């Protein structure tokens, strides 16, 4: 079975969605660091299981990462060799 040609609009939409996912991943990463840091600063805190909220954030981070990888696998970005196209 032959794969159908990828349309430029599909690539553009994939890049837009990838950017949204990258931004979400960055926000989730910052949130996870803040949550983990606040746990470390609690007086009398003993090392225990991470709270459910932090586990949910990590699960979402894994899901977002898988989506990004799937998009990049389906719509790989061409490598730029430094050559400029003639005008």
TrEMBL record:
Top-level division of the source organism's lineage: Bacteria
Protein name, as recorded: Uncharacterized protein
Species for this entry: Mycobacterium fragae
């Amino acid at each position: 079975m032959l794969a159908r040609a990828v349309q430029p609009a599909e690539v553009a939409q994939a890049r837009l969605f990838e950017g949204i996912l990258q931004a979400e991943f960055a926000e989730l990463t910052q949130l996870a660091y803040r949550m983990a840091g606040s746990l470390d600063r609690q007086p009398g805190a003993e090392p225990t299981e991470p709270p459910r909220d932090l586990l949910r954030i990590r699960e979402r981070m894994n899901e977002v990462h898988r989506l990004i990888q799937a998009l990049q696998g389906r719509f790989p970005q061409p490598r730029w060799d430094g050559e400029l196209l003639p005008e």
